[in-house]
């Protein structure tokens, strides 16, 4: 399946958050929009990293509630895979052990 087909069904809206925002702000955005991850961006168009619910839950278990006041940059993954609309889902997402991060037409 092509990435373009996935986005046709899913939509290509992607929410971003600043690396300086708190994890608490990220949790509020994730819950409020019913999504599982946020693209971390300094401008709203660049990709500095990604932050997922899984990242937050794992870190809460390790670090406790104090994590919520830490900046997103403390926890975000900096190694983000990008793709083109013409790429296949297998090439892009492969056989990851976790759900794929968001895909967007402009990435």
Order of helices and strands, N to C?
A: HEHEEHH
Q: Percent of residues in beta strands?
A: 5-15%
Mean pLDDT: 85
Which structural class do you get from the secondary structure elements? alpha+beta
Q: In summary, what is this structure?
A:
The protein is of the alpha+beta class. The protein has helices at residues 3-10, 23-33, 53-63, 89-93; strands spanning 16-17, 37-40, 49-52.
Comma- or semicolon-separated keywords:
single chain; 107 residues; alpha+beta; three-stranded mixed beta sheet; 4 helices; 9% strand; elongated
Structure overview:
- It is a single chain.
- With 107 residues, the protein is of the alpha+beta class.
- The protein has four helices and three strands.
- It has helices at 3-10, 23-33, 53-63, 89-93; strands at 16-17, 37-40, 49-52.
- A three-stranded mixed beta sheet has the order 1-2-3.
- Strand 1 (16-17), helix 2 (23-33) and strand 2 (37-40) form a beta-alpha-beta unit.
- The protein is elongated.
Helix/strand layout:
Blueprint: H1 3-10, E1 16-17, H2 23-33, E2 37-40, E3 49-52, H3 53-63, H4 89-93
Parallel strand pairs: 1-2
Antiparallel strand pairs: 2-3
């Amino acid at each position: 399946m092509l990435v373009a087909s996935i986005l046709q069904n899913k939509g290509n809206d992607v929410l971003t958050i600043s690396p300086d925002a708190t994890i608490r702000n990220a949790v509020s955005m994730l819950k409020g929009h019913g999504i599982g991850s946020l693209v971390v961006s300094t401008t709203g168009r660049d990709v500095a990293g990604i932050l997922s619910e899984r990242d937050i839950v794992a870190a809460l278990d390790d670090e406790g509630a104090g994590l919520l006041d830490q900046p997103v940059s403390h926890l975000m993954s900096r190694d983000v895979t990008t793709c083109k609309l013409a790429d296949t889902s297998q090439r892009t997402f492969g056989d990851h052990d976790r759900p794929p991060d968001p895909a967007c037409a402009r990435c």
